Amino acid sequence: MKKIIINGANGYIASNFINQLLKENYKVIALVRGSKKISADERMFKVLSEINDEEYISNDKLTVHSYSLDEYNFGMPQEQLQDIFNGEFDYYHFAASLKYDRKSKNEIFGTNIDGLKNSLGVYTEHANASSRFFFISTAYSCGKMDGLFEEKFYDNADISAFRNYYEQSKRYAENIIKNHIEEKGLNAHIIRLSQVVGDNNSGITKTDYGIFDFAKRMYSLSHRYPNETVRIKVDPEATQNLIPINLVVGYLMRTVIIKEVPQIMNFTSKNAIKNRHILQSVAKLMPINIVPVENLKKAEMSPLERLVSVGMSFTGSYININLQFETKNTDLLIAGNGFSKHYSLETEEQSIFDMLAYFVGNLPAPRGSKTTRKNEATV
Asked: What global pTM score does this model have?
């Protein structure tokens, strides 16, 4: 059985992927950035323990290496790299900066573009002909385009074509891989992810990005200003494309198993969730009333509403959109072998509510809280 090499291995998606790989007895090499405060091993085992409700036991199929994405040869001795990249393997490049603001442009491009170039350099020097390179991109490399975002390469564009530098950096990174495919014969595949949420079977949610970051902010404010009504500049009929982590892991496992994998795949949900439902769910779980107002002007906002608006600087970029993603190649990936019988393919409104309930129910009580959770018994 081939081994799987993963960089950025302690991230939310990568660690859940590794957890499933280990369950299915694959040999996994995890490349993790260590620090003076916490070693690469400790960081990896900590996140795996959290996934398994603190019951994770060290697995002899998992080897963790400390690496530096921006250093030549990842800051590793040549002998160590030769051992890591020996034999047949698939390599998954998860490492990325998730920042998005203008101030962080250099860091974003340094990690998401220069880091990828370095990763490709290490891979091409040591990989054999049977190995494959998988790049984890984002479905939002589509930028501000209208219409269907197809499973194909798109030309680089100025920042004005994107909502933020994160999206732009991922488009540029995809085209770096395209050049390696065309000029060097790289056996590479692009996986574009939409917003990854919790498990749509159990409701367990251990990420705080996107709608969960919004829920966390509203939870804190609702306990400082209980039972207030807050208007938010949101189109209630616009949608969020939310794909559950268990489905993403299922798709990733198929890329390991299937020999002929499509070159570009949009891992997105076919059942987008309306903002109206998300806001109603958040409000149901805490002492606050949320009213979506599509054309709310800043001058009309109360001080509390302005505070909410500032906290939505990232989420707000995605809250009034209705994107359409092609999934033809992803459908080919999962065709046959009863895949749909083992995975709930669609994210439903109830499962999103369950995820938000789990997430909010596990938030620590805010300091100086004036009230308790709404419907606490149901959380």
From this structure: 0.92
